[in-house]
Specification:
This protein is α/β, with parallel strands linked by helices. The chain has five helices and six strands, in the order βαβαββαααββ.
């Protein structure tokens, strides 16, 4: 068996994928995006080496939440000060900053370490259908076929 060294991963080829979030369920979309960011579908996947691809998500404002999650799901964050707990419903976040909803869902599906933070930087999310990554020529990918 051939031994893989860190030098072999210096020349990792990273592809650019374009994902349209229109009428997609948030959790299923996020899990498949996380697979692309981690590089889990590549034949030489290694958990401790970052070899995932770039993912550009468009139409984040048209993402769907099933059931009553739009009204009942609450996202919390704390400022670090006493009494600094903030709570927002998914509907409020979707109206004001739809890209944050997708980014947060994907973030929670990535590893909780330095590697996960590095992977998240390769995720680009946009509310509308315009994005500034035309020069990279991202390939449109049908997200249902990722798994």
């Amino acid at each position: 068996m051939e031994r893989i060294t860190p030098m072999d991963f210096k020349n990792i080829e990273r592809k650019w994928h374009l994902v349209d979030a229109s009428d997609k369920v948030l959790g299923r979309l996020a899990s498949r995006i996380a697979l692309l960011l981690m590089g889990k579908r590549k034949p030489n996947y290694t958990p401790h080496i970052d070899q995932g691809d770039f993912v550009v998500v468009i139409n984040a404002e048209k993402v769907k939440l099933t059931g009553n999650k739009l009204e009942n799901k609450i996202y919390y964050h704390h400022s670090g000060y006493p009494g600094g707990l903030k709570a927002r419903k998914a509907k409020e976040i979707l109206e004001k900053h739809p890209e944050r909803l997708i980014k947060l869902a994907v973030k929670r599906m990535l590893p909780k370490n330095k590697l996960g933070r590095k992977m998240l930087k390769r995720l680009k999310v946009y509310a509308g259908d315009k994005h500034p990554h035309q020069a990279q020529k991202p390939q449109m990918i049908e997200i249902e076929k990722v798994l």
